[in-house]
Design goal:
Elements: H1 7-23, H2 28-41, H3 45-57, H4 63-76, H5 80-93, H6 98-110, H7 114-128, H8 137-153, H9 159-167, H10 174-177, H11 182-185, H12 191-213, E1 218-222, H13 225-234, H14 245-261, E2 267-271, H15 274-283, H16 293-303, E3 308-309
């Protein structure tokens, strides 16, 4: 999403995404969410609300995320009471996904509900992180957001703030980035103050651009058991790639841990289906039997917004689809 688009461009992009969603129904949820975001930027909040409503009526894969985005839009659209009711419901539901918490907290923050924003950030971190645990990439923004709100409230640093300093990807320290006095510096007549503020803003923007440009530089392909059985029944030559479903799951976890240990950021997992893979192979004018097509398929799914961040928090459901928490399933060895 380009922040410099004109409202007309946002409307055009939303229409393109809606057409793409109709063409690829298996990807309709992330595509409709992106379309709704463009409609919001175009000022068409009523239509964006309609998209959120239609998604929720269709039992989305990520209902808490859709509800959080819906609440943020409704508040900007003048429906504060309805937005607050949705936010209260989300806080009660206590999702184990950091994204809804971040949207809720930032919505409260943007409307000067700083105490409530701080409480939301803190509740999320207490729910998602355990002492001594390595901070998953999606959860880092909760730490940084909480640090920002605490600076606005004038609160002293605590252990969470110290952790936020350690995961901060920007070259500029968080205390500088979140200094409330920065707002005054933008109106200064002093060239040195303005130059210092420009430097800080560039560092902050650079971090966001890096995160947005390639949110999942590496996304590994995950075949659920039934889909893998269908794949191998249709294309037996791929058995060399997937000797068993258990081995497939173990290989994913092992590969991701190796990549994380090597310093690769923003790792993700994409879930495959046989019909989607066959359609992708046809679009590439290739055969599904070609192993080299598998990583290309994973990259394409990630580009469509289908990647799930790895690792999940220890208490969240394991990425493999089991009913166990990650710490009791594929996260056992890292606990």
């Amino acid at each position: 999403m380009r922040p410099d688009m004109l409202p007309a461009d946002h409307t055009t992009e939303a229409e393109r995404l809606l057409r793409t969603a109709a063409r690829y129904p298996e990807d309709h949820e992330p595509l409709l969410l992106r379309a709704a975001a463009h409609l919001e930027l175009a000022g068409d909040r009523d239509r964006a609300t309609g998209l959120y409503d239609s998604l929720l009526a269709a039992s989305p894969d990520h209902p808490h995320l859709v509800k959080a985005l819906q609440a943020a839009n409704l508040w900007e659209y003048g429906h504060e009471a309805e937005a607050r009711a949705i936010i209260d419901g989300l806080r009660t539901a206590a999702p184990l996904d950091p994204a809804p918490w971040e949207i809720v907290a930032e919505t409260l923050e943007s409307h000067d509900e700083l105490e409530a924003a701080h409480d939301s950030f803190t509740t999320a971190l207490e729910l998602l992180l355990s002492p001594g645990e390595e901070v998953p990439y999606p959860t880092q923004s909760l730490l940084i957001g909480r640090h920002r709100v605490r600076r606005l409230l004038g609160l002293d640093h605590d252990d969470w703030d110290a952790l936020a300093d350690r995961v901060n990807p920007a070259a500029v320290p968080l205390d500088e980035l979140h200094d409330p006095k920065r707002l005054w510096a933008l109106g200064s007549d002093n060239p040195d103050e303005l130059q210092a503020e420009i430097t800080r803003l560039r560092a902050e923007l650079g971090s966001y651009r890096t995160a947005l440009s390639r949110p999942f530089p590496v996304a590994l392909l995950h075949w659920p058991a039934q889909e893998l059985s269908e794949l191998l029944a249709a294309y037996p030559s791929l058995t060399a790639e997937y000797p068993s479903h258990e081995a497939h799951l173990a290989q994913i976890e092992s590969a991701l841990r190796d990549l994380a240990a090597a310093g690769t950021p923003n790792l993700g997992i994409v879930t495959a289906t046989v019909p989607s893979y066959e359609a992708f192979a046809a679009s590439e004018q290739s055969s599904p039997t070609h192993p080299a097509l598998l990583p290309q398929y994973a990259t394409t799914l990630a580009a469509r917004g289908r990647a799930t961040p790895w690792p999940p928090s220890r208490n969240a459901a394991c990425w493999c689809g089991s009913t166990k928490a990650y710490r009791e399933c594929h996260g056992v060895a890292s606990s």
